[in-house]
Amino acid sequence: MANKCKVPCQQFQTCQDIVKGGCCVPVPREDVAYVTCTYRNTCIEKPDFLAVIDLDPCSPCYGQVINRLFMPNLGDELHSAGWITVCVCPDNSGTRWNKLIVPGLISSRIYVVDVGSRCHTPRLCKIIPPECVFWRCDKGYLNVPRQLPCGDVLIANLGDPAGNSKGGFVVLDGHNFELKGNWENECEAPQFGYEFWFQPCLDVLISSSGIAPKIAGYGFCPDDYKKGVFGRHIYVWNLSCRNIIQCIDLGEDSLPLSVKFLHNRNAAEGYVSCALSGVIYRFYKCQRDCWEVEEAICIPDKEVTGWIMPRMPAFIVDIVISPDDRFLYVSNWWHGDVRQYELTRGCKPRLVGQVFVGGSIVRCGPVAVCRDEELKCQPEPLVVKCRRVYGGPSRLQLSRDGRRLYVTTSFYSAWDRQFYPDMVREGAVLVLIDVDTERGGLCVNKDFLVDFGKEPCGPCLAKDIHFPCGDATTEVFS
């Protein structure tokens, strides 16, 4: 039986209604993308870099890497990035974000990249060495950065300097980018950490769990089930007091990774995806002034042979909510599909779009599907511009108008090497999925492909995606 709503559903705007002061303004199209790229675990001894991708359809370099900002160190594993500081464009075409915070997941080094002065040729303007993070914060393995309402930068971490699991956040000063220390109050650090999202009007922040870095570095091991290795909680924080007010258990070995609030500033609800259970929960504030969760989506396992386990769960890496809060997008890294769910018709999301971008169950591969509750046959391998796509859909980014969904195929280099060795050898890709924003629906654009297997230094692994004009994972609340 489907779960019934416990609170009224949020009333959503249309894309055209994402406005300032109630008056419609044009939404600028993305003309450039910044993509974090790593060479770690590829057997290529080169530093990671930030790739600049030309997304202007009228440009002769459309869909190509037009610049590479190499980091000065090896082995950072650039994973996530986040914007800070808004500046108004001189042509009144919207706003641009002029600093990009790029932490190294493995090195715990923090890079501050200036893109405001030269968006096509960004430059490093500050580096915070890992020793500062280790000694001052007793933290390491930095992941998702986001700008707080006060202007400071909050960066979630996965562990301590030794690689043991330890959640929490480190803070950078929003003006001079000096490391200020830990954000949470003393003794408030949770056992696990990974990502977070917040709603300033509700004075709340919600963070997810992850895996102990020193265990994740060896790859995925089925024997780790039932050993408390994988996170199982989301944490509700008081944003101004910086303390945990609630801890919600999502089940053993659920591994909640991606967490997103709705964009509407008054919405007291959002979604969190669990990588290993294949469940996406809706969280919401109830009348008792506490937070609860209910199952919104459950992607079933597949019975398989030729894989690491007899059942393949839906490994959900990322979720993104459209700026109008109408659609939820899901990347299923192991199965290989990107899904679009409509959120407007009741609290139970409705699947309205699905495409396959690689994955482990493609036809003619080593994995055979014995029983599948959803598909009648295994999907065909994806080929775009004569290039076979290896890996699976991992990180997502949606354009401001909601019409273009960009997807990369690398999750984490150690796990890439384990599950998709062909991708490590051939390189990751960036693909474009066209979105039907009226009726719902997804279609892979066969005229667009960024092939990171053709990099001058050799094939690399591409991850996080951001646009200087704003995107669906930038803290812009309608």
How does this model look, in words?
The chain has 478 residues and is mainly beta. It is 5% helix and 39% strand. The chain has helices spanning 130-137, 213-216, 413-419, 421-426; strands at residues 32-38, 49-54, 65-70, 82-88, 95-103, 110-114, 123-128, 140-147, 153-159, 169-172, 179-182, 196-199, 204-207, 233-238, 243-249, 256-261, 269-274, 279-285, 291-298, 302-305, 311-312, 316-321, 327-332, 337-342, 350-356, 368-371, 383-384, 387-388, 396-398, 404-408, 429-435, 442-451, 461-466. Strand 14 (233-238) and strand 15 form a beta hairpin. It starts with 31 loop residues before the first strand and ends in a 12-residue tail after the last strand. Mean pLDDT is 90; it is low at 1-24.
Concise overview:
Helix content is 5%, strand content 39%.
Secondary structure layout plus pairing:
Elements: E1 32-38, E2 49-54, E3 65-70, E4 82-88, E5 95-103, E6 110-114, E7 123-128, H1 130-137, E8 140-147, E9 153-159, E10 169-172, E11 179-182, E12 196-199, E13 204-207, H2 213-216, E14 233-238, E15 243-249, E16 256-261, E17 269-274, E18 279-285, E19 291-298, E20 302-305, E21 311-312, E22 316-321, E23 327-332, E24 337-342, E25 350-356, E26 368-371, E27 383-384, E28 387-388, E29 396-398, E30 404-408, H3 413-419, H4 421-426, E31 429-435, E32 442-451, E33 461-466
Antiparallel strand pairs: 1-2, 1-33, 2-3, 4-5, 5-6, 6-7, 8-9, 9-10, 10-11, 12-13, 13-14, 14-15, 16-17, 17-18, 18-19, 20-21, 20-26, 22-23, 23-24, 24-25, 27-28, 29-30, 30-31, 31-32
